[in-house]
Write a structure and sequence with these properties.
It is built from ten helices and 17 strands. It is globular. Helices cover 25% and strands 24% of the residues. Strands 8-9-10-11-12-13-14 form a seven-stranded parallel β-sheet. Helix 3 packs parallel to helix 4. It has a domain of 291 residues: Alpha-Beta Barrel (TIM Barrel), CATH 3.20.20. By secondary structure, the protein is of the alpha/beta class.
Length: 428
């Protein structure tokens, strides 16, 4: 009898626990939905979703991603039939340390841009500032830009203490301090600073090596803008001897100036060590910019099976009105060079999130912050410019229809989330 009582108590406890779990599950999925995106095609590479599904958002979080979610509990239902739903786009290479220092270049200068004016309209919810500031002026950047922006801003810290104040300050090897750079990241801003940047150096490998030294001290990746050396330095040596797996090479499809070695040779062939470097773990970032993307590099590279790991803009005042325009435009270029939409979306969501070691971003997992982009893939007759003002014709163009940051609609191109104005008229 005693044994029977014990078994009965155990079974009763199990039933009670099961009922509690089911009750919690039912409550979670029965609670009110703040925003329901209905009828769209979800592309979420991290969760291996590429099909028609609905997305429910509650309290700034992703509540559910599933087919045919009931609209009965939804406060706002947005019909996105015929559109694509993706995680909020990540632009891994921008310059956002905007300021009015008269002699400044990118650090607190006019060349950088205030991000909110350029992100949401392109479907971007997260940016990574690529080395505009160093350890000496990062706190100013944080105070006047990062803390005041609705766009999520992460940063690569320049190995030069003054950041990109000008090309001249960027040559100062005495200001390339791995210890101070590492301390700024580890002790003060580990959540915001996701890596280190080396850029615009005219000398040898010293700047890169100092950046990698700092990266080793705090276990973060390094991004290298490598192309102002005279005579040109070997990118094969850079990839194989100086950078580590997980480090990033930006401006992948740049052609010129004469002191920058290219990944595609003058016969149009991708250099074999480039494939080897990518297999080794070097991250190839587009970093389009105002002077770092040419069709004569990108087209043959993709035709030969070399595709970038990350698609980014290098957004700044000198790139936004040229061939770059915005992230959707750059994504469209790769669609028209033959990449699939799924792969293009991976290059602006999952891949950059992994590159900066922030796996919580770039996905639509239940419970994650609701950063969501709704894209319209338009069909037509389009033209796309590179930085040399030559054109590639294409039949596909992506456009940001809706951008949601932490559950809040930040951009609605055609008012698809809003009621018709006539509904506000008084009833007769």
């Amino acid at each position: 009898m005693q044994i029977g009582k014990i078994k009965y108590a155990q079974v009763s406890g199990m039933v009670f626990t099961l009922c509690l779990l089911l009750s919690s599950f039912s409550f979670a999925h029965a609670q009110e939905i703040d925003l329901l995106l209905k009828g769209g095609h979800v592309i979420d590479p991290k969760n291996q979703i590429d099909s028609k599904m609905d997305v429910a958002i509650s309290n700034g979080k992703i509540l559910q991603v599933a087919p045919n979610i009931s609209a009965q509990k939804a406060k706002n239902v947005v019909n996105v039939t015929g559109l694509y739903i993706t995680p909020g786009l990540i632009d891994m290479h921008v310059h956002a340390f905007q300021g009015n220092e008269p002699d400044a270049y990118i650090a607190n200068g006019f060349t950088s841009l205030p991000p909110d004016g350029f992100t949401f309209r392109a479907g971007v919810t997260t940016v990574v500032d690529a080395g505009s500031s160093g350890w000496r002026n990062f706190r100013q950047f944080k105070k006047q830009t990062i803390d005041r922006s609705q766009t999520r801003i992460l940063a690569l810290l320049n190995i030069v203490g003054t950041g990109m104040a000008s090309r001249f300050e960027e040559q100062d090897t005495n200001d390339m301090n791995p210890v101070q750079t590492a301390l700024m990241i580890k002790r003060l801003f580990p959540e915001i600073i996701v890596g280190i940047k080396a850029a615009h150096y005219w000398g040898d490998f010293t700047q890169v090596d100092r950046a990698v030294e700092a990266g080793n001290l705090v276990n973060v990746p390094v991004m290298v803008d490598f192309g102002e050396h005279n005579p040109p330095l070997s990118i094969e040596e850079l990839f194989m001897k100086h950078l580590r797996p997980g480090d990033m090479f930006t401006h992948t499809f740049s052609y010129g100036p004469a002191n920058r070695e290219t990944i595609v040779d003058e016969t149009g062939k991708v250099k074999s060590f480039v494939f080897e470097a990518q297999k080794r773990g070097i991250i190839f970032d587009v970093g389009h910019g105002g002077g770092a993307f040419s069709w004569r590099q990108a087209v043959p590279a993709l035709q030969q099976g070399f595709i970038p790991n990350v698609i980014s803009t290098d957004l700044h005042a000198d790139s936004m009105n040229g061939g770059m325009k915005d992230l959707c435009n750059v994504m469209s270029k790769f669609l028209n060079m033959g990449m699939s939409l799924h792969d293009v979306v991976s290059c602006v969501t999952l891949n950059p999130a992994n590159a900066i070691k922030r796996s919580e971003f770039g996905n639509l997992s239940e419970g994650s912050e609701a950063d969501v982009t709704v894209l319209n893939l338009r069909k037509g007759d389009f033209g796309f410019l590179d930085i040399r003002k030559t054109k590639l014709k294409g039949e596909q163009k992506l456009e940001a229809e809706l951008t949601i940051r932490a559950g809040k609609i930040m951009w609605d191109l055609n008012g698809i989330s809003a009621p018709a104005w006539e509904t506000e008229l008084p009833k007769k």
